[in-house]
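pasting for the record
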Amino acid sequence: MASPEVLAHVDHLVYAAADLDRGVAEVERLLGVRAGAGGRHPMWGTRNALAALGASSYLEIIAPDPDHPPNSEGRPFGLDALESSRLVGWAAKGRHLANIRDAAARHGVELGEVLTGSRNQPEGGVLTWTLTDLRCVVADGIVPFFIDWGTSPHPALLASQGAILVELFAEHPDADRVRRLLRIIAVELPVSAGPVPALMARIDCPCGRVLIR
């Protein structure tokens, strides 16, 4: 099991799929948990579904929203060219995100602008948040973006239950560099050398202990 320090950083994991219904079905086959509807992100041209991974973390399944075309920069997480579903990144918990961004930039890690977002919840109400720019991908998504939910309830509280994140780790061809970048932003994540960048999570669920990558 991962150390508490690693899991304490995790706000959510991002599982990208070319089609949301297909992504939800894939995750249900893997975990035995059916992710519930999240909402739409018109600014990015995406929509999502969520499954809790504990009291304050969750798995986000994200896919293109056919009712909302992307802006000129395209959809985040490479969704417009995605060939197969996979973990493409993760969000770390953060406060005072402008300070985090500025401190990282002073040491050569560019997290991008701090943006605001919101979406309507299926059961009513609006979630709001701030986050660093999803399009500033660092180390192939192994270095996280940061998110702050402010006064909104954490999405894990209302997401489908039944799964628990027990370990998050990664592989990268330049593991030493990635570990250095993570140290700069004070985030714990085990990274070992591997042939291709890969983010991997072990999850306890009705199907047992499952590895998602």
